[in-house]
Amino acid sequence: MSTLESITDAFFILNHEWRFTYLNQQAERLLQRDRNDLVGKFIWEEFPEAINGIFYREYHRAMSEKCTVGFEEYFDPLETWFEVNAYPSEEGLAVYFRDITERKAAQRIMHESEERFRNIARATADAVWDWDMKTDVMWWNDGIHTLFGYSPKEIESDISSWTSRIHPDEKDQILAEVHHAIDSGAGSWTGEYRFRRKDGSYAYVWDRSFIIRDEYGKAVRMLGGKNDITESKLQQARLTQQAELLDKAHDAIIIRDMDNHVSFWNKGAERLYGWTAEEVAGRHLEEFLYEDTKGFRTAMEELQKNGEWRGELEPIHKNGKRLIIEAHWTLIQDDAGYPESILAINTDITQRKAAEHEIQYLAFYDQLTQLPNRQLMLDRLQRAINATSRNGQHGALLFIDLDNFKILNDTLGHDIGDLLLQQVAQRLTTCIRESDSLSRLGGDEFVVMLENLGGDSLEAASQAETIGEKILAALNESYSLSDYEHQCTPSIGITLFSNQEHNMDELQKRADLAMYQAKGEGRNTIRFFDPDMQAAITNRITLEADLRSGLKQNDFLVYYQPQIVKDGKLLGAEALLRWQHPSRGLVSPTEFIPLAEDTGLILPLSEFVLMTACNQLVAWAQHPETAELNLSVNISARQFHHRDFVDQVLGTLAKSGANPENLTLELTESLLVEDMESVISKMTTLKSRGISFSLDDFGTGYSSLSYLKRLPLDILKIDQSFIRDLLTDPSDEAIVRTVISLGQSLELAVIAEGVETGETREALINIGCHVYQGYLFSHPLPIEEFNKFIRKMQTETITNKV
Ligand SMILES: Nc1nc2c(ncn2[C@@H]2O[C@H](COP(=O)(O)O[C@H]3[C@@H](O)[C@H](n4cnc5c(=O)[nH]c(N)nc54)O[C@@H]3COP(=O)(O)O)[C@@H](O)[C@H]2O)c(=O)[nH]1
């Protein structure tokens, strides 16, 4: 019995009266009863629940038929599954039993999951397979029929049903992969390969499986499912083929899936972005192409909405450089009409954009100062004018012109002039707000446009003036131009605008006029446009028309103002132009000479004066008493700088027959600052023919000794502004003295003009000036009057001698 105590199974013996005669310890434990209590007891009384079940039936069968029985049964009172084997014996019945509750539970779970798996396998469209590796039984669901055409009868029930249908080219590779997965302890295996259909053709399949292992890790089962990916493979192949055809295209051609993972990347894309196809395959575009994904995502939304998208994007080259591309994206759909992938054809327009930008820049920006140019200024002005009618605000236009910039440019050279303009541009930038606009119109002209100066014109004017003052102060600071310290001042003209009252042209004219007014009033100042200026400009227009018709109708005359030597002798006269206007009477040259200069009419006028003067010299030459008289003729800057000037003078002399020795040309200082070498050359040529030169208005300009020394001059003419107050203003007297001594040292004659009184004449004699012109002797006279004056002078001289 001790053997029966030590066996793992529970064991008891029943006699022929169904009473327990023996129970081992295991039986005591499983039945949860004390064996001493049970021995001698009637089994069906102790366990009445067993009477109506399999226990009762099978035990009776074993006892009556003397056969061995074995069964598994659940015994409710003990909530236990038993595996029972009963053997009839002499004594009665020997019963071995064990608790299989846990095994039963595992079997149930296994059964349930198996059931679930089969149900899923039935429901799925994939071809599901189940390979029992211990038995080599291979189970397939209906998918093997629906996908590949095999009926259950046609398909083998072992692993050959799978392996024999793998495409020969891929079979070894796939089997090696599967073996590797099994041997390496992997939990799954996936693969893509071709699988033969019943009709002999091959389908591309995507197989996913997992491997079931026992408690020792040994693979016992493999379950998997294949789906047919032939269509998408073919589609992909077709696209790739098409795209490969375009591989040689210059453009970048990219195919990506709907999640933007790259599936095709042609050579053009490699060239454009610097990434090779291998480097980007399967990668998300945003990962490596777009720093700012906003534009890219907006484009994606459009693409999904409309099926295609065209536009510009700014991707990044592999080397970090920003590119600009023109993209054309098309959504590619599968047979069912679902979006499947995206075909992108991208053209590099980086250089084109740069060129466009450059052109734009050149068209709208000044190269020297990098400021907006006139074109852009006009555009902004138009917008500002339009805005005033909407917002009721005032704006202001400030025209800024540098005083005497030309002199700097001509004397120190254009490079220095450019430096000044650049520094002026910088200073102007610091004087304005970011919302204001600064531009360079060209030359030394700058424009500042101020906006949003409020609804009240006085307030707006005051704000504009404040900015104007600021500019004035900033530009007055000294400039360091290479090695030169330079002082420069601006003249500023301001006009306000509001409510679209004036158009762009008008506003520009107004600001320009105001600026000229500032210049006219001594420079380095600010002037606002006012309506009187408008009247002046209207007059100017009328005057120009009158000048033209005056020239045609010979309304011009020459007057002569005598020039007298200290001893009373008549040296000659200055020829002065007069305009006998039909309605306005005699018009002073101060009124029309500047306009004639601006319009070019000074050329025919000057020709007329020179010809008249030369003819007069010829007329005087006929009489010994007047043959020595000299005539001075004023030469304007424009006339002098005309390329035919020398020929014109010589031609007039030749035509008239006048003696050049009796002709003096009066030049002004401002005329001399432009192209010094050409000035000297022209003067030298004329001087070699006997013509003299006088420097008019001396002292009022930039009396530079350096040029004075180089010019072939004969006479310095002291400006009348110094003569007027000679007796009362010590500084004027000092200037006059200086000019006279300068004349002496340079061996130049000196004439004082504007001599109105005897006292002035006396003072000049005392200082050392011996030739005079002025009202003391005579106003400018018409020729008849002047001839009378000559005769009177000669009579007086003779009388004095007598
Ligand atoms: N390019 C040309 N310029 C010319 C010509 N003719 C004249 N002008 C220039 O016009 C300016 C005004 O000239 P005008 O009104 O003739 O005045 C001259 C004299 O009348 C005046 N003057 C002479 N004496 C006195 C005086 O005692 N007091 C006083 N207040 N004015 C006086 O001075 C003018 C002469 O100036 P200038 O020529 O500088 O010697 C004047 O700038 C003329 O130059 C012409 O044909 N071409």
Automatic annotation (TrEMBL):
SMART domains in the cross-refs: EAL (SM00052), GGDEF (SM00267), PAC (SM00086), PAS (SM00091)
Domain PAS: 1-41, 113-185, 238-307
InterPro entries cross-referenced by the UniProt entry: Biofilm_reg_signaling, EAL_dom, EAL_sf, GGDEF_dom, Nucleotide_cyclase, PAC, PAS, PAS-assoc_C
Keyword Ligase in record: no
A Pfam match: PAS_9
EC numbers for this chain: 3.1.4.52
Any one GO BP annotation for this protein: cellular response to nitric oxide
Needed cofactors: Mg(2+)
Catalytic activity, as annotated: 3',3'-c-di-GMP + H2O = 5'-phosphoguanylyl(3'->5')guanosine + H(+)
Ranges for domain PAC: 189-241, 309-361
GGDEF domain location: 393-531
Stretches assigned to the EAL domain: 540-794
GTP-binding keyword on record: no
SUPFAM superfamilies in UniProt: EAL domain-like (SSF141868), Nucleotide cyclase (SSF55073), PYP-like sensor domain (PAS domain) (SSF55785)
Top-level division of the source organism's lineage: Bacteria
A single MF term (Gene Ontology): cyclic-guanylate-specific phosphodiesterase activity
Keywords annotated in UniProt: c-di-GMP
The protein's name: cyclic-guanylate-specific phosphodiesterase
Naturally occurring in which organism (per UniProt): Methylohalomonas lacus
